[in-house]
Amino acid sequence: MISSALNSWFVANARDLPWRRDGFGAWGILVSEFMLQQTPVNRVIPRLEEWLTRWPTPASLAAVPPSEAVRAWSSLGYPRRALWLHAAAVQITQLHDGVVPSDLNDLLALTGIGDYTARAVAAFAYGHRHPVVDTNTRRVIARAIAGVGEPSPPSRGRDLDAMGALLPQSAQEAALFNAAIMELGAVVCTSRRPHCAVCPIRDDCAWRAADYPEYTGTRKTVQKKFAGSDRQVRGLIMAELRSTHRSVTDADIATLWSDAAQLRRALASLVADGLAIPADDGYTLPT
DNA sequence: AAACCGTGGTT
DNA sequence: TAACCAAGGTT
């Protein structure tokens, strides 16, 4: 029973993270989950605390223009998430009386919330019994249960079934286990150099039992190079937009990157995303 | 459903 | 140093 072993280990070894504090609240947990989508814990914590001090409720965020959310997002990356979080706050305010919903389908209907985030909020904020599957969970299951070094590409049904099969019956133990297996993947059963010597389930690990076979399945698609990419150029334009409260002119933008065609392409995609708004004299953040 | 979307620390 | 990787979501 890896769930009881992992839960005991987690109770004794969990990192002291803000969203694990007593009474952190559903809104704080929702904000943290948005920020943690592909951004490391250590970079999230300071932005999260600023954010919640300034906007302690969904309604307080919904009351300001999206530009303020994008600015406060700072350099967390993927600024569309700031826009989506603001949109979710508006939806929560208008559709749910300002209360973060606890129902999976209600959560999934919010902008920027997918399977992982909906389940994380329902489980961690409300204690509901749902399998929660993130990249850490998938890696631990691949190793400890399936005996392979890496998870195969994500498959919603398979992943939820695999986690569901391990989930304790009681909602409280289940919520703890969802967090515990993620934590194990984050700090012990890491992607590159797993710390098997200190793993609380090493004696139950199928990968270790098979003497750590090399992964032979489908590799996940490699991330495209960032340097010189459209993503880099978008990032430069966004930093410029965030840096001022007046509009950014074409001349300003031209100084950011030498390839004019790529600059145009990046700017057009930001406009399409609603992150840059054409104005008389240039571009602004969405107000 | 594969590709796209930021940023910065680690190896 | 270049590649890898990070509590995903959307199209």
UniProtKB/TrEMBL annotation:
<dbReference type="GO" id="GO:0006298">
    <property type="term" value="P:mismatch repair"/>
</dbReference>
<dbReference type="GO" id="GO:0046872">
    <property type="term" value="F:metal ion binding"/>
</dbReference>
<feature type="domain" description="HhH-GPD">
    <location>
        <begin position="35"/>
        <end position="187"/>
    </location>
</feature>
<keyword id="KW-0378">Hydrolase</keyword>
<dbReference type="Pfam" id="PF00730">
    <property type="entry name" value="HhH-GPD"/>
</dbReference>
<dbReference type="InterPro" id="IPR003651">
    <property type="entry name" value="Endonuclease3_FeS-loop_motif"/>
</dbReference>
<comment type="similarity">
    <text>Belongs to the Nth/MutY family.</text>
</comment>
<keyword id="KW-0234">DNA repair</keyword>
<dbReference type="InterPro" id="IPR023170">
    <property type="entry name" value="HhH_base_excis_C"/>
</dbReference>
<dbReference type="InterPro" id="IPR044298">
    <property type="entry name" value="MIG/MutY"/>
</dbReference>
<dbReference type="GO" id="GO:0006284">
    <property type="term" value="P:base-excision repair"/>
</dbReference>
<keyword id="KW-0411">Iron-sulfur</keyword>
<protein>
    <recommendedName>
        <fullName>Adenine DNA glycosylase</fullName>
        <ecNumber>3.2.2.31</ecNumber>
    </recommendedName>
</protein>
<dbReference type="InterPro" id="IPR011257">
    <property type="entry name" value="DNA_glycosylase"/>
</dbReference>
<keyword id="KW-0326">Glycosidase</keyword>
<dbReference type="GO" id="GO:0035485">
    <property type="term" value="F:adenine/guanine mispair binding"/>
</dbReference>
<keyword id="KW-0227">DNA damage</keyword>
<dbReference type="GO" id="GO:0032357">
    <property type="term" value="F:oxidized purine DNA binding"/>
</dbReference>
<keyword id="KW-0408">Iron</keyword>
<keyword id="KW-0004">4Fe-4S</keyword>
<dbReference type="GO" id="GO:0000701">
    <property type="term" value="F:purine-specific mismatch base pair DNA N-glycosylase activity"/>
</dbReference>
<dbReference type="GO" id="GO:0051539">
    <property type="term" value="F:4 iron, 4 sulfur cluster binding"/>
</dbReference>
<dbReference type="InterPro" id="IPR003265">
    <property type="entry name" value="HhH-GPD_domain"/>
</dbReference>
<dbReference type="GO" id="GO:0034039">
    <property type="term" value="F:8-oxo-7,8-dihydroguanine DNA N-glycosylase activity"/>
</dbReference>
<dbReference type="Pfam" id="PF10576">
    <property type="entry name" value="EndIII_4Fe-2S"/>
</dbReference>
<keyword id="KW-0479">Metal-binding</keyword>
